[in-house]
């Protein structure tokens, strides 16, 4: 499953990546420290990991995907 996240931060010095991680944390209702970048630090496409109860995270993802 893929979730599209758009941020206004520019891709300079990791600002866009940080903004994506903050936005994902907010969307899933978890602390920023529960979201980590798996791959894509310098790419438009990023893979992140969200730590938490799997059922809760999966349910929230399904809600976000509509």
UniProtKB/TrEMBL annotation:
InterPro entries: DUF167, YggU-like_sf. It comes from the Bacteria. Belongs to the UPF0235 family. This is DUF167 domain-containing protein.
């Amino acid at each position: 499953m893929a979730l599209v996240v758009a941020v206004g931060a520019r891709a300079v010095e990791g600002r866009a990546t940080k903004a994506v991680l903050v936005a994902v944390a907010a969307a899933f209702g978890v602390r920023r420290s529960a979201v980590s970048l798996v791959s894509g630090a310098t790419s438009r496409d990023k893979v992140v990991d969200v730590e938490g109860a799997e059922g809760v995270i999966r349910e929230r993802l399904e809600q976000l995907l509509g």
